[in-house]
């Protein structure tokens, strides 16, 4: 681990020294346990590639030029990763990924998706390409979605989702009128 920069702490934890080898061992063990849990849960689902329908494959972006498959999860840096993929597939000199408009980046037709390939080609790509995704704490993801979609007016999102959420909230409040827990939860 590199020496700390002046005034900065490791991982925001206030450490003035690098983490000890005990910390590194615990982190490695924790990562191994997470991987084992993921493998067990995926094995329990027991779906073959043939069983997967297009819905399951909606979020898999294929980049043939670099031999990668990116499974994006909304509110887990997917905008920035899509920008990066667009920049990587542009001609040199590569454009600044941040120069791409957010709405433009999310245009579904901008990318090749795994679901659009024939079954044999899907299997080939899944066997040979590097696959990756990013995850995020679900509660932090929910807060991020609220801040991004509810606090900042977005016409598309508002028409599609926010109006529905507000109508459910109004209905729930009317149905539970007088129950103190309902107003506590919803506000």
UniProtKB/TrEMBL annotation:
PANTHER family: CARBOHYDRATE SULFOTRANSFERASE, CARBOHYDRATE SULFOTRANSFERASE 12. Keywords: Carbohydrate metabolism, Glycoprotein, Golgi apparatus, Membrane, Signal-anchor, Transferase, Transmembrane, Transmembrane helix. One of its GO terms (biological process) is carbohydrate biosynthetic process. GO terms for molecular function: sulfotransferase activity. It comes from Oryzias melastigma (Marine medaka). It comes from the Eukaryota. This is Carbohydrate sulfotransferase. InterPro entries: Carb_sulfotrans_8-10, Sulfotransferase. The lineage of its organism: Eukaryota, Metazoa, Chordata, Craniata, Vertebrata. Its EC number is 2.8.2.-. Belongs to the sulfotransferase 2 family. It is a single-pass type II membrane protein. One of its GO terms (cellular component) is Golgi membrane. It is an enzyme of class 2 (transferase).
């Amino acid at each position: 681990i590199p020496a700390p920069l002046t005034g900065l702490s490791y991982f925001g934890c206030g450490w003035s020294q690098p983490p000890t080898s005990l910390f590194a061992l615990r982190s490695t063990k924790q990562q191994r346990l997470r991987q084992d849990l993921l493998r067990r849960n995926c094995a329990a689902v027991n779906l073959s590639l043939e069983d997967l329908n297009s819905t399951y494959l909606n979020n898999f972006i294929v980049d043939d030029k670099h031999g990668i498959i990116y499974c994006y999860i909304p509110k887990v840096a997917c905008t920035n990763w899509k920008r990066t993929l667009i920049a990587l597939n542009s001609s040199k000199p590569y454009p600044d990924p941040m120069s791409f408009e957010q709405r433009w980046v999310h245009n579904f037709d901008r990318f090749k998706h795994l679901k659009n390939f024939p079954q044999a080609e899907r299997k080939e790509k899944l066997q040979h390409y590097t696959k990756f995704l990013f995850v995020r704490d679900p509660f932090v993801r929910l807060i991020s979605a609220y801040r991004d979609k509810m606090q900042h007016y977005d016409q598309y999102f508002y028409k599609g989702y926010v109006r529905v959420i507000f109508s459910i909230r109004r209905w729930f409040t009317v149905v539970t009128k007088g129950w103190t827990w309902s107003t506590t939860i919803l506000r």
